[in-house]
Design goal:
This protein has about 200 residues and is of the alpha+beta class. Helices cover about 50% and strands about 15% of the residues. Helix 1 packs across helix 3. The mean pLDDT is about 80.
């Protein structure tokens, strides 16, 4: 009897190890999509039924965002020249509060999905003399403009988080990491438990 309970418990743990990550990922995706959809869904403002009650159409907010992004992508790719993009960039940078928010989000977005991906060089940095090392991403190779000519900028993402920490590091302590950027990010965010 004790052996059967042990086996059932073992199966329970193995099943949880398979189901929990899938369930957590699906729940997070569902939560994010439903929040975006409810925030951007204007169907209850535009449409009413015969009794005058607003009609909510699930998915219309997400569909609206996808259509807007595709249309803007087509316009920017085919009709907007580099000089127009630069003019808009200079204009946005003149707005005091908007400038900080706009440039921060623009740089963050481009770091992951733009033509100039910033998190493309995974590195290992020796932190102290005891041999402690951290994995990060080299983001700037020349810091002489800010008075640190021998240093580089390394971004260290935090495990189980979307946050991170930017550090200025002596370039001699930075070594390239022999893995792809996406594998390095997975390894860091998973706390080192992701398979290599």
């Amino acid at each position: 009897m004790n052996k059967i309970i042990k086996s059932l418990f073992n199966y329970l743990v193995r099943g949880a190890l398979v189901i929990l990550p899938i369930a957590a990922a699906l729940f997070f995706i569902y939560w994010a999509v439903s929040k975006v959809d409810s925030a951007l869904n204007l169907s209850n403002v535009i449409w009413v039924d015969q009794t005058g009650k607003p009609v909510y159409i699930p998915g219309l907010g997400i569909l609206s965002v996808i259509v807007i992004l595709i249309v803007v992508g087509i316009i920017v790719t085919n009709f907007v020249t580099d000089s127009i993009k630069k003019w808009f960039g200079r204009w946005f940078k003149r707005l005091p509060v908007f400038n900080v928010i706009y440039t921060s989000f623009k740089d963050l977005t481009e770091a992951f999905v733009g033509d100039d991906k910033k998190f493309s060089e995974p590195v290992v940095v020796e932190v102290n003399e005891t041999g402690l090392k951290k994995i990060g991403f080299l983001t700037q190779k020349d810091l002489s403009k800010i008075g640190y000519p021998g240093d580089v900028a390394v971004y260290f993402p935090l495990s189980y988080s979307f946050a991170g920490q930017l550090c200025l590091v002596d370039s001699k302590k930075v070594k390239p990491l022999n893995m792809s950027a996406s594998d390095a990010m997975k390894f860091i965010v998973s706390g080192g438990v992701s398979h290599l």
